[in-house]
């Protein structure tokens, strides 16, 4: 059995170091401490005839060698306790190993694995930047309000203000690009969804529709429908690949959910899941927070972690290999999201944009959506948590909100632009700071749930690349057709499962009416069209537009 007094703890690579190790030490018996679960590990077990453990499954990734050394896999690097110690010392974080002597073999290997993913220089810089950002956070220095200006109207396309012919032209362009396999969608699904409060990824949520469909299923079916429309119009068999960015918290359950549901009819090779990085939470003293004796408090690096994850996981190469030129990036929780929307894609392509954002008219000044605007002449989103209430309430000459372009986290990027961002600008992306209550272990190893904020979490935002664009465009869409986010649990006034469900049902009701449908009651008597299910923002003008859009989609 594993001795807790380990003499050596090392980390090896399955591909080369593993074999080297076998030759050097001529170790006859190798046993896994956990059930292999990735293809890579299963393959290694077969190739190297590693003895798998009895039914005991550990969360650690370790190999037990018969002379009481614990080795474990980690992407080709070798890490010993000494190396980990040196690494942490360089970064001023030696306290991470303070409980080392108390850890079991499994616990220590898990901690080493975590440390092996942190580069000392980056860690040092991360902790320094976190403390600096936190001190700026509480002062007014970093505020951009005084330098904000609205997006000039000529840079905003609008469903509301465009005639049927123009919408059709954009829709046709979008479908043409889709039919030529040049368009993919990318879902940002690495967030922890803390506000909704469910222990599984948000995309698996069922808002209580009569069909019982989850957000993931609705999205998968949407992809299929757009492919079908393009195929019908152009007589082709096109594919819209679906990239899904997850994090350590969401990858496993998301993969399983898709497998269990047979990818909702999509071809698994066209659903590409990858993981964004996690970064440590930092205390106000610049020290990494330990959430367990052997576990650093880690969180995803924000949805702007996308750009690093695209490189880490070779997604841009995958796009190039598939001949993809345009990417529609969106967030997981908007039940009305129109993925690969031909009108939006066509609009952006037609304008020669390398970067674009869908927006809706903000419903009220304090609505929790970012606003698309310009700061010192560059396009930017100022997040709802970073704008001052006085600025959000500013009004133009006609009484309309000055900063009304509400970001709905629907972005268009060309592959060329993403490549440029990844190569040149990723490291310049702004770090946003959130001061949070982060549970931690105290010096005696007791778990403490803080009553006031004690930790700094740093995040990058997906829209912070707008400033690097050569041609940015915004596209205003109808809220009632395209935006109903699921953020909070039922009981909250807005953005709940109930509001999401109602929005989708109301949309389908309008579509049925627009298509000439009638609704019958239980006695088969026609029910007069009900306008009371309209969402508050609906107007007679937008009702007209549903009809126009329905016609455009039908004719595409
Ligand atoms: C930073 C950002 O985009 N903010 C937008 C986001 O705010 P909001 O605060 O709602 O952002 P969320 O935290 O829900 O994240 C948006 C999306 O990013 C994903 N995610 C988040 C964190 C992470 O590390 N990895 C990751 O993939 C989430 O899973 C989600 O799909 O949506 C609102 C509309 O609903 C917009 O008005 C906000 O401007």
From TrEMBL:
SUPFAM superfamilies named in the record: Nucleotide-diphospho-sugar transferases
Superkingdom of origin organism: Eukaryota
> What keywords does the record list, in alphabetical order?
Nucleotidyltransferase, Transferase
- GO molecular function ontology, one term from the record: UDP-N-acetylglucosamine diphosphorylase activity
Q: GO annotations under biological process?
A: UDP-N-acetylglucosamine biosynthetic process
Q: What family is reported? A: Belongs to the UDPGP type 1 family.
Q: What is this protein called?
A: UDP-N-acetylhexosamine pyrophosphorylase-like protein 1
Organism whose genome encodes this protein: Sinocyclocheilus rhinocerous
């Amino acid at each position: 059995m594993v001795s807790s007094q380990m003499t050596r703890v090392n980390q090896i690579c399955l591909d080369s170091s593993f074999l080297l190790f076998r030759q050097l030490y001529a170790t006859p018996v190798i046993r896994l401490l956990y059930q292999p679960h990735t293809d890579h590990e299963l393959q290694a077990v077969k190739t190297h005839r590693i003895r798998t453990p009895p039914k005991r499954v550990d969360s650690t990734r370790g190999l037990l060698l018969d002379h009481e050394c614990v080795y474990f896999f980690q992407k080709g690097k070798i890490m010993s306790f000494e190396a980990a110690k040196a690494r942490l010392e360089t970064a001023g974080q030696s306290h991470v190993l303070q409980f080392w002597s108390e850890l079991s073999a499994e616990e220590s290997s898990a901690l080493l694995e975590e440390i092996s993913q942190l580069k000392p220089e980056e860690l040092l810089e991360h902790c320094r930047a976190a403390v600096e950002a936190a001190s700026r956070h509480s002062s007014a220095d970093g505020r951009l309000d005084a330098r904000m200006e609205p997006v000039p109207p000529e840079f905003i396309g609008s469903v509301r203000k465009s005639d049927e012919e123009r919408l059709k032209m954009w829709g046709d362009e979008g479908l043409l690009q889709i039919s030529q396999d040049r368009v993919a969608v990318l879902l940002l699904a690495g967030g922890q969804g803390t506000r909704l409060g469910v222990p599984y990824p948000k995309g698996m949520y069922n808002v209580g529709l009569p069909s019982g469909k989850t957000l993931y299923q609705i999205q998968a079916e949407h992809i299929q429908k757009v492919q079908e429309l393009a195929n019908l119009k152009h007589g082709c068999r096109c594919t819209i690949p679906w990239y899904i960015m997850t994090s350590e918290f969401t990858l496993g359950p998301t993969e399983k959910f898709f497998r269990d549901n047979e990818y909702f009819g999509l071809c698994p090779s066209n659903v590409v899941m990858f993981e964004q990085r996690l970064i440590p939470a930092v205390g106000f003293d610049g020290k990494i927070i330990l959430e367990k004796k052997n576990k650093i408090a880690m969180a995803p690096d924000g949805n702007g972690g996308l750009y690093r994850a695209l490189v880490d996981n070779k997604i841009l190469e995958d796009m190039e290999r598939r001949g993809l030129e345009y990417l529609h990036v969106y967030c997981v929780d908007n039940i009305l999201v129109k993925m690969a929307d031909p009108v939006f894609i066509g609009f952006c392509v037609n304008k020669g944009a390398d970067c674009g954002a869908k927006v809706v008219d903000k419903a009220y000044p304090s609505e929790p959506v970012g606003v698309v605007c310009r700061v010192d002449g560059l396009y930017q989103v100022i997040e709802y948590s970073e704008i001052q209430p006085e600025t959000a309430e500013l009004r133009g000459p006609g009484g309309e909100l000055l900063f009304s372009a509400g970001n709905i986290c629907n972005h268009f990027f060309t592959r060329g632009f993403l490549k440029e961002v990844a190569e040149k600008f990723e490291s310049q992306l702004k770090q946003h700071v959130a001061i949070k209550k982060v549970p931690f272990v105290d010096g005696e190893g007791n778990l403490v749930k803080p009553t006031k904020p004690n930790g700094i979490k740093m995040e990058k935002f997906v829209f912070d690349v707008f400033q690097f664009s050569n041609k940015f465009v915004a596209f205003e869409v109808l809220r009632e057709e395209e935006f109903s986010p699921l953020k909070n649990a039922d009981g909250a006034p807005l953005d709940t499962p109930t509001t999401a469900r109602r929005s989708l049902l109301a949309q389908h009701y309008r579509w049925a009416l627009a298509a000439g449908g009638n609704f019958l009651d239980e006695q088969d008597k026609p029910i007069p069209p009900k306008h009371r299910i309209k969402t508050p923002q609906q107007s007679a003008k937008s009702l007209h537009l549903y009809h126009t859009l329905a016609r455009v989609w039908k004719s595409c």
